[in-house]
Write a structure and sequence with these properties.
Helices cover 29% and strands 24% of the residues. The protein has helices at residues 62-69, 126-131, 133-136, 140-162, 203-211, 249-264, 280-287, 304-307, 313-320, 338-350, 373-383, 398-410, 413-416, 492-501, 506-520, 534-542, 572-578, and strands at residues 25-37, 42-48, 51-57, 76-85, 98-109, 166-167, 185-187, 195-197, 216-224, 236-245, 277-279, 300-302, 324-330, 357-361, 365-367, 390-396, 425-429, 434-437, 442-445, 472-477, 480-487, 527-533. It has an eight-stranded mixed beta sheet with strand order 6-9-10-22-21-20-17-11, sandwiched between helices. Strands 1-2-3-5-4 form a five-stranded mixed barrel. It has a five-stranded antiparallel beta sheet with strand order 12-13-16-14-15, sandwiched between helices. The two termini are 51 Å apart. The protein binds one RNA strand through β1, β2 and α2.
Length: 583
RNA sequence: GGGGUCGUAGUUCAGCUGGUUAGAACGCCGGCCUGUCACGCCGGAGGUCGCGAGUUCGAGUCUCGUCGGCCCCGCCA
C-alpha cells in the first residue's frame, strides 16, 4: 500500500548532502539504488537526480528495520532522518563522508525487478535500454547528459537574447518543398488529398521573418527528414536556427564563435577565437573531406606533376583519362606488413578507388609500383617522407583519390587516439553552389536553393553553373559537421534564375515558392544565417559517440521507437476521416 | 536499396569438426549475519537457444527465409 506523502516535504536532494549538513534533520525522496541487509543493520543507497546517499537503519527501531528489509531495487521511498558523519567514509561517493540515520520511512511505490541494473556503464543492449528508456534515463550518465542538454539550450538562449536575437516560433504543419530530403507528410482531414509537411528546417519562414523586419531571429527547433539513420542522424533532430539581416559572412562567424565559446564554458573549455577558415577546395585537397578532423595532422599532397614524369604505364593511362595522383604520408608506418597494406588497399577500394599504391622506405625503397630509385626519391621528397615512413598513393579520378585517402587519413588509428578533449573547430567556406546529381539527372543545390552565389562567380551562372561557388559555410568540429549556413538571395530575379538553373519549371516554382518570391518583392533586406545541429553539439560536449545518448527518446536505426512501438497502424475509421486508403 | 555484425536463463556472455541432462557470472527467491558500500556465508528456482522452414538418424551449432539491435555505403537542400 503506497504511503501518503501529503505531510512530508523534501528538504534536500540525496546527492547534495555534505559534512556541513551534519546534525540536520532532512527529508529525502528517491529510488532505492541498493539494499545491503546486515541482519540487525540495514544500509540503503538512495538515489535521486543529484546523486546517491547512504541511509542507515539501526536496530533500536525494530519496526523500521523490518520495513527497510523489505525494500528492493527501484522502490520509491521517502526517508526522514538525521545527517551524521560516517564511521567509514566512502571516497568514491560525493556524499561519502555522511549518511542519513533513518527515523521514518515511507514507501510510495514498489517496483518490479528491473530488466537491467540502473548503473553506469549500462549492462544492457541498446535494444533493451530503448524498450525501458525510463529506467535507462535514471542512470547517472543519462541524467547528466539530459541536464547538460538543458544547460546548453539555456546558454544559447541567454547568449543570443543578449545579442538582440528574438526566439520566434515557426509552424510544424507547413508546406512540402521539392528540394532536399524526403518530407514527413501530415494528411489534411479538412482538405482530403492535401498534405501538410513537417519542416526539414524553418528555412523559408525564417527568411520571411527577415523580410518582416525582425532583424535577428533564433529558434531551438525540431526538424524532420525522412532519410536513413546513423549514429549522428535521427529522423527528428534539433537545430539552433539563426538568421540575421544586414550582415556578411564575417559578422555571422563572430556571433557563432562567441556562442560556441559560451557553450563550451559549460564543460570548462576555453575556446581559441577566431576559428580557422578553410575553403572547400583547400579542405578537399588537403584532407579529402568537407568536414575535416583537424586533430589529425596528416595532409594529402598532389603528386600529379611528378607522376607525369614517371615511367609507369599504369599512371600514364590514368593521366590520359584526366586522372590525378594523390599521396598521403603515414609517418612511422613503414613497418606495416603485407597483410596490413592489403587491408588498407581494401579500404581504399571500398571508397571507390581502383587500387592503392604503397611506398615504404626501410633500408631502401620498397613499393607495389616498380620505379627507378631517382623516381622514388622525387616522390619521397614531395611527400616529405623519412626513414621508416609509409606513403600511400592513389591514381584515379581526383575526387575518388581524395575521398579514399581522406578516409584512410580520418581513421588512421595512431592519429585518433587520446584526444577526446581537444576541440578543433573550423569554418569551411566557398562551397560549390550546385552539384550534379546522377540520380536526378540535373544540378541540385549543395546547400539549399536560397544560397547566394559568390559575387565574383555570378557571371558563370548562365554558362557554367556547376563552377559557381556559394556564400555558404559549414562549421566543423573534430570531423563532425555541427552547422551550416549561407548568405541568402534577397533578389527575386536572382532567386527565380536559381530555380530555373535547378530545373524547376516556372509552374513548379510558382506552386512551391510563389509566396516566397512574392515576399522578396516587397523589400527584402540582405540577410544570412546558419543552423547548428544541437544534438551533435551536446553529444560532443557530453563526450558521447551517438546523439541517441543525448536524446531522451530516440529512434532505432530502422526508425522505430521501441518504447511506444511507433510507428503503428491506425484504425480504418481514422483513415476514412483523412480520406486515405492503404495499398 | 546494399554491405558487415550480433540475437542462448531476468541481464552480460561461453557453448569446439553437428552427438548424453545447454553452462558461468551477476541478478532473483529462501535462510543467517550490527558498519556495509561489488557486503559476506548457506541453500534454491530459472531456457520456445529471436521466429519459420530445410538438410540430417540427430541442429544452439549447417543452409535458406524472416524479424529485431548496432556500424557503414547510398540517401541526408
Amino acid at each position: 500500500m503506497a504511503a501518503d506523502r501529503s505531510n512530508w516535504k523534501r528538504t534536500h536532494y540525496c546527492g547534495e548532502l555534505r559534512p556541513a549538513h551534519s546534525g540536520q534533520d532532512v527529508v529525502l525522496m528517491g529510488w532505492v539504488h541498493k539494499n545491503r541487509d546486515m541482519g540487525n543493520l540495514v544500509f540503503v543507497d538512495l538515489r535521486d537526480r543529484e546523486g546517491l546517499v547512504q541511509i542507515v537503519f539501526r536496530s533500536d527501531k525494530a519496526a523500521l528495520i523490518e520495513e527497510a528489509k523489505r525494500l528492493r531495487t527501484e522502490f520509491v521511498v521517502g526517508v526522514r532522518g538525521t545527517v551524521r558523519p560516517r564511521e567509514a567514509k566512502n571516497k568514491d561517493l560525493a556524499t561519502g563522508e555522511v549518511e542519513v540515520e533513518a527515523k521514518e520511512l515511507k514507501l510510495f511505490a514498489a517496483s518490479k525487478i528491473p530488466p537491467f541494473a540502473v548503473a553506469d556503464p549500462p549492462q544492457a543492449s541498446e535494444e533493451l535500454r530503448f524498450k525501458h528508456r525510463y529506467l535507462d534515463l535514471r542512470r547517472p550518465a543519462m541524467q547528466r547528459n539530459i541536464r547538460l542538454r538543458h544547460e546548453a539550450a539555456l546558454r544559447v538562449r541567454n547568449f543570443l537574447s543578449g545579442k538582440g536575437f528574438y526566439e520566434i516560433e515557426t509552424p510544424f504543419m507547413t508546406k512540402s518543398t521539392p528540394e532536399g530530403a524526403r518530407d514527413y507528410l501530415i494528411p489534411s482531414r479538412v482538405y482530403k488529398g492535401r498534405f501538410y509537411a513537417l519542416p526539414q528546417s524553418p528555412q523559408i519562414l525564417k527568411q520571411t521573418l527577415m523580410i518582416s523586419g525582425f532583424d535577428r531571429y533564433f529558434q531551438i527547433v525540431r526538424c524532420f527528414r525522412d532519410e536513413d539513420l546513423r549514429a549522428d542522424r535521427q529522423p527528428e533532430f534539433t537545430q539552433i536556427d539563426i538568421e540575421m539581416s544586414f550582415i556578411d559572412r564575417e559578422d555571422l562567424f563572430v556571433v557563432i564563435e562567441e556562442l560556441m565559446a559560451s557553450v563550451f564554458e559549460l564543460i570548462g573549455e576555453k575556446l581559441t577565437l577566431p576559428f580557422p577558415k578553410l575553403s572547400y577546395k583547400e579542405t578537399m585537397e588537403k584532407y579529402g573531406s568537407d568536414k575535416p578532423d583537424l586533430r589529425i595532422h596528416l595532409e594529402m599532397k598532389d603528386l600529379t606533376a611528378i607522376g607525369k614524369d614517371l615511367s609507369a604505364d599504369l599512371l600514364k593511362n590514368i593521366f590520359a583519362a584526366g586522372g590525378e595522383l594523390k599521396g598521403l604520408l603515414l609517418p612511422g608506418a613503414g613497418s606495416l606488413s603485407r597483410g596490413q597494406l592489403d587491408k588498407l588497399g581494401e579500404k581504399a577500394k571500398s571508397f571507390g578507388a581502383k587500387g592503392l599504391i604503397w611506398i615504404k622506405k626501410q633500408d631502401g625503397f620498397k613499393s607495389s609500383l616498380r620505379l627507378a630509385e631517382s623516381e622514388f626519391e622525387s616522390i619521397w621528397a614531395a611527400l616529405g617522407g623519412g626513414e621508416g615512413d609509409l606513403g600511400l598513393l592513389i591514381a584515379d579520378k581526383k575526387e575518388t583519390g581524395l575521398k579514399a585517402l581522406g578516409e584512410i587519413r580520418r581513421t588512421w588509428p595512431q592519429e585518433k587516439a587520446g584526444n577526446k578533449r581537444d576541440f578543433k573547430f573550423a569554418w569551411v567556406t566557398d562551397f560549390p553552389l550546385m552539384e550534379w546529381s546522377d540520380e536526378e539527372g540535373r544540378l541540385v543545390s549543395m546547400h539549399h536553393p536560397f544560397t547566394s552565389p559568390l559575387d565574383e562567380d555570378m557571371g558563370l551562372l548562365e554558362k557554367e553553373p556547376a563552377r559557381v561557388r556559394a556564400k555558404a559555410y559549414d562549421l566543423v568540429l573534430n570531423g563532425i559537421e555541427v552547422g551550416g549556413g549561407s548568405i541568402r538571395i534577397h533578389d527575386t530575379e536572382l532567386q527565380r534564375k536559381i530555380f530555373s538553373v535547378l530545373g524547376l519549371t516556372p509552374k513548379e516554382t510558382e506552386e512551391k515558392f510563389g509566396f516566397f518570391l512574392e515576399a522578396l518583392t516587397y523589400g527584402a533586406p540582405p540577410h544570412g544565417g546558419i543552423a547548428l545541429g544541437f544534438d551533435r553539439l551536446v553529444m560532443i560536449l557530453a563526450g558521447e559517440e551517438s546523439i541517441r545518448e543525448v536524446i531522451p527518446f530516440p529512434k532505432t536505426t530502422s526508425a522505430l521507437c521501441l518504447l511506444t512501438n511507433s510507428p503503428s497502424e491506425v484504425s480504418d475509421r481514422q483513415l476514412a476521416e483523412l480520406g486515405l486508403k492503404l495499398k
